[in-house]
From TrEMBL:
<protein>
    <submittedName>
        <fullName>Translocase of inner mitochondrial membrane 22 homolog</fullName>
    </submittedName>
</protein>
Length: 62
């Protein structure tokens, strides 16, 4: 293997591999207004309403 292949695999491992760091993208860190953390129920409802399936059904019905 040449060095470019090794460098590519190291970058790939850093970005999407097991060594990837979980980033906390809270609005306070990103410069937005501080908001209280969302509960698991709020996150679940938000994911459901932002899903393509929900939006498609809503577009057909509404």
């Amino acid at each position: 293997m040449d060095s470019s292949t090794i460098q590519y695999s190291m970058v790939l491992e850093h970005l999407i591999g097991e060594k990837r760091q979980i980033k906390d993208l809270s609005p306070g860190v990103m410069g937005g207004l501080p908001t209280p953390p969302k509960s698991n129920e709020q996150k679940m409802i938000e994911r459901g309403m932002e899903s393509c399936a929900f939006k498609s059904i809503l577009a057909c019905v509404g």
